[in-house]
Amino acid sequence: MPALVLLGAQWGDEGKGKATDLLGGSVDYVVRYQGGNNAGHTVVVGDQKYALHLLPSGILSPGCTPVIGNGVVVDPSVLFSELNGLNDRGVDTSKLLISGNAHIITPYNVTVDKVTERFLGKRKIGTTGRGIGPTYADKINRVGIRIQDLYDESILTQKVEAALDGKNQLLTKVFNRRAIEVGQVVEELLGYADRLKPYVADTVLVLNQALEQDKVVLFEGGQGTLLDIDHGTYPFVTSSNPTAGGACTGAGVGPTKISRVIGILKAYTTRVGSGPFPTELFDEDGDALRRIGGERGVTTGRDRRCGWFDAVIARYATRVNGLTDFFLTKLDVLTGWEQIPVCVAYEIDGRRVEELPYSQTDFHHAKPVYEYLPGWSEDITKAKSFSDLPKNAQDYVKALEEMSGAPISAIGVGPGRDETIEVNSFL
Ligand code: IMP
After folding, report:
1. DSSP string, 324-380
2. What are the structural domains of the chain?
3. Disulfide engineering: 270 pairs with which of 67, 93, 279, 304, CB 3.0-4.6 Å?
4. What percent of the chain is predicted at pLDDT more than 90?
């Protein structure tokens, strides 16, 4: 069963880095298929902590080929600084492959992201300000710049001209900004071409050939299910498809090739940026989850909003992704609570609702209906098997599994690489 998708089952930041890293040793290719440097993975290897934003976390596993697929948007300056940072620490990054069809986050896309957010005022999305949305907008508007365009100066110039035509009108006339010069942008982009060249490949061909040869390919989603442009809490979402189908379009691999879809599920819930979040806590429990869980964005440094586990969301993630398994993370963060609330349904305008409402208005009105599960106080970070967990922790996991609709095949009990219980093997 060689093709696995690993994705966030909530609003991102579920601890995917730990999961991909855990699998990294037995995986031949780790592929990012959407998003860009808005993602943030913290991976702990030995006593070293790595923060990755754009690169697939498989870059830290020596036997593995990391791939940036066509569905990703790439800011070359961020890519190089991430590569430099890893090289300085002795990590070999020479195997990296980048799709020539991936779109480039240009400096003007970053400008437009920031200016748009400022103009939205209190209606802002709370984006990471990395130019992600405007780059995908250019892609859909067919004025995007792709990595392959860097190797034909005349085409590149024409494309930058086309992209800036309307944008400069907007920047100068609406946003009161200075126009961006075509020549300057082209020069900056061409400056990346030589260093990028050795990495650029026909990644669709490479990955399909790898699958034919029964290699293990792991597709790593950025963000999470509820931030999906189609299936998330629109408009408070990112501009790509982190859900499982995104792996097919964003890497050029057919759905019949995907054998397993693993949802990363945090034992509680967090969210960054604006938008509805039914189980959000504004009290000392929320502060405690934030403090104990280290819930601060890897990319933006923003505090994450924290709340209890929401089984309605987990069930939804199972459905829209066709999840075959969950990887439950950060169970250790819940140690010490006498009882732990779990949201099992919503109350919306006096009605009990078991499934995620498709209507944005209803979701904004959703109030959590809680069940209270008994907590545990024992340190669980040394647990190596499910039976090492205290009975109440076992019951918590079993209850979540039953409510969420897919087996929990791994449990994170601490941030370290080996602080994971494997219940069923993923491979
Ligand atoms: P964008 O992806 O920068 O356009 O931001 C859109 C929304 O997605 C904002 O609410 C961000 O906070 C959120 N977001 C983007 N990337 C991540 C992530 O990796 N984890 C959590 N939230 C994210």
Report:
1. SEEEEE-GGGGTT-SEEEEEEEEEETTEEE-S--S-HHHHHH-EEEEEEEE---S--
2. 3-93+202-422 (3.90.170.10), 103-196 (1.10.300.10)
3. 304
4. 87
- Which residue is closest in CA terms to ligand 1's atom 8? 238
Q: For strand 269-271 and strand 305-307, is the pairing parallel, antiparallel, or unpaired?
A: antiparallel
Q: In what order do the strands lie in the sheet with 420-422?
A: 200-201, 97-99, 65-68, 29-32, 217-220, 3-8, 260-266, 325-329, 408-412, 420-422
Q: Is the pTM of this model over 0.85?
A: yes
Q: Nearest C-alpha to atom 12 of ligand 1 is from which residue?
A: 273
Question: Tokens in use for 344?
Answer: 């099992």
Nearest by Cα to 133 from 102, 109, 106, 164: 109
Residue nearest to atom 11 of ligand 1 (CA): 127
- Cα–Cα distance measured from residue 11 to residue 132, given in angstroms and rounded to the nearest whole number: 17
- Residue range 71-112, pLDDT digits in tens: 999 999 999 999 999 999 999 999 999 999 999 999 999 999
**Which residues belong to the active site?**
13, 41
| CA 326 – CA 340 distance, rounded (Å) | 20
Q: What is the mean pLDDT of the chain?
A: 94
CA of 71 to the centre of ligand 1 (A): 16
Does residue 307 have its Cβ closer than 6 Å to ligand 1?
no
**Can you state the angle between helices 107-120 and 182-196, rounded to 10 degrees?**
120
User: What is residue 150's predicted lDDT score, i.e. its pLDDT?
Assistant: 98
